[in-house]
Amino acid sequence: MDHFADDSDDDLPTLEESFQVALGGGGRTLRPQRDKGKGKAVEPSGSGHKEAGRRALGRPRDRGKGKVKAKATSYSWEANYKRSWDAVQEDESGGLAGAVKSFLDAAKRRRTAAEASPVQRGIIRHLVLILDLSEAMTDKDLRPNRYDLTLQYAREFVAEYFDQNPIGQLGILATRDGVAEKVVSMGGNTVEHVQALANKRKWEPRGEPSLQNALEMARSSIAHLPSSNSREILLIFGSLTTCDPGNIHDTISALARDGVRVSVVSIAAELKVLKDLSKHTHGRFGVALNEGHFRDLIFEAVPPPELEASDAMDARAMRKRRRTATQLNNEGVDGGSNAEDEEDDDEFYDGTDLLSMGFPTLLPFITASKATLCSCHSKFRSGPAFLCARCGAKLCDVPTDCPVCGLTAVMSTHLARSYHHLFPVSGYKAIRWADVDADSPPACFSCNVSFPERSKDDADVDGHLQGQAQGSSADGYAASSRYRCPKCNNHFCIECDTFVHDTLHVCPGCC
């Protein structure tokens, strides 16, 4: 077969085509061909090799319409920039103060906009706070670092916990160097807990944490409590590893069997063992995104958790086992009588258990100034003290369980402050500018501060804030700064709304 030389440059393959065909174009390499008869080098023809090059590159055949444009490839660095600051709108004066205020008010509204309905909760709480004090807590992804920020939020959590749960108990544990250490024993004294967390030198982070040792120590301190008391653990974990002496899944099964609810706040990342721990024990799990989100996750444990149907069944089964064991010890094994007593007990215990409580007597100042034996610490102490209503033992602080007779000593104000968890204040409804008319009140019912007046651009701002600042209208933010109580129909500002639901727990208009 003869080959004809083509001196035109148009038929020569380009460098890109030659390289692509040599690498992956069917194993063929474009090379000069030699004439068998004359030994002359002949250039490849443009009709065959250029078409093979196009097929190797995946290009369509040129049919006389000019050069074919290569298919555009989309990469992340080639996409358009999404500038979040474009969504912020200026106010009438040209500043951003109005936009910033709307975002701050929206964050406050998220905590109070949830619909509150009466549910069964365990107000007599026993919570164990476990802090990860390993070497990973020295990282500075949270300012100033994980360790300092965790201690600061822990102190704030202790104060808020005892303020919202006056008849609850709290204990603090720490894990480092592969072991678990007790920071504060289970008790109800806010000052002791805050002072223990303020000692940074004593609890400097080091080594690796031990999740299993910390959970076992916490379980041993609350597993023996009666079913009427809630048993909870709040774990703040910052490491990606754990140094355990045994199988951690056995500990998780034991916690679930004892009815201990474990909530986890992870600082570093989502770990499967932590998520399984919270899932099997019906607790919460969250990963902190920033400093504010970290605080919100911790403070979710302040209100008592809702009791599920499974919790009630487990409590009833536990009471049944204890009654059966008591009958066997006192009366011996008697099938007929025990069966009848068990039926009577089941019929009687269908409701909630009754709990014995006593109101202690406050000692006069003259008597309290003298050092007397304290039953709580077994030491001679002076200062404010109480006398147990049943046995008369001296108690340093209330609420607490009497060490002598076991009676729960509380004050009437403690019960009143714990009552609002069972019957919370209904969430206020946001009022849009379209619902504001001439008959609407001009000022807040509680603080008597005047509401802002409506401007010509409020319709656009209202819709923008609903979509941008909150993300959805379900969050319940109102650009009019008006919120209405569904019972008394009075209007309140955002500050009073937050104060009523977070601190006061009583609607001023419904009183």
Keyword list:
Rossmann fold; metal-binding; 511 residues; VWF_A; DNA repair; transcription; transcription regulation; 4 domains
Structure summary:
The protein is an alpha/beta fold and 511 residues long.
**Number of helical regions:** 15
How far the N terminus sits from the C terminus, by CA atoms, comes to 108 Å
**What's the rounded overall pLDDT mean?**
78
What is the beta-strand fraction? 5-15%
- DSSP, total strands: 19
CATH topology of the largest domain: Rossmann fold
Largest sheet: 6 strands, mixed
Describe the structure.
This protein has 511 residues and is of the alpha/beta class. The protein folds into 4 domains: 1-64, no CATH class; 120-309, von Willebrand factor, type A domain (Rossmann fold); 357-419, no CATH class; 429-504, no CATH class. Helices cover 35% and strands 14% of the residues. The chain is built from 15 helices and 19 strands. It has helices spanning 15-24, 46-57, 97-112, 146-164, 190-197, 211-222, 248-257, 272-280, 291-299, 309-331, 335-348, 365-368, 412-419, 458-469, 494-504; strands at residues 33-34, 41-42, 125-132, 169-176, 179-187, 230-237, 261-266, 285-287, 357-358, 361-362, 372-374, 379-381, 386-387, 394-395, 400-401, 408-409, 429-431, 482-484, 491-492. The strands form 6 sheets. Strands 5-4-3-6-7-8 form a 6-stranded mixed beta sheet, with helices on both faces. It has a 3-stranded mixed beta sheet with strand order 9-16-15, with no helix packed on it. A 3-stranded antiparallel beta sheet has the order 10-13-14, with no helix packed on it. Helix 8 links the parallel strand 7 (261-266) and strand 8. The longest helix has 23 residues, at 309-331. 26% of the residues are buried. Residues 126-302 form the VWFA domain. A zinc finger (C4-type) spans 388-405. It comes from Tilletiaria anomala (strain ATCC 24038 / CBS 436.72 / UBC 951).
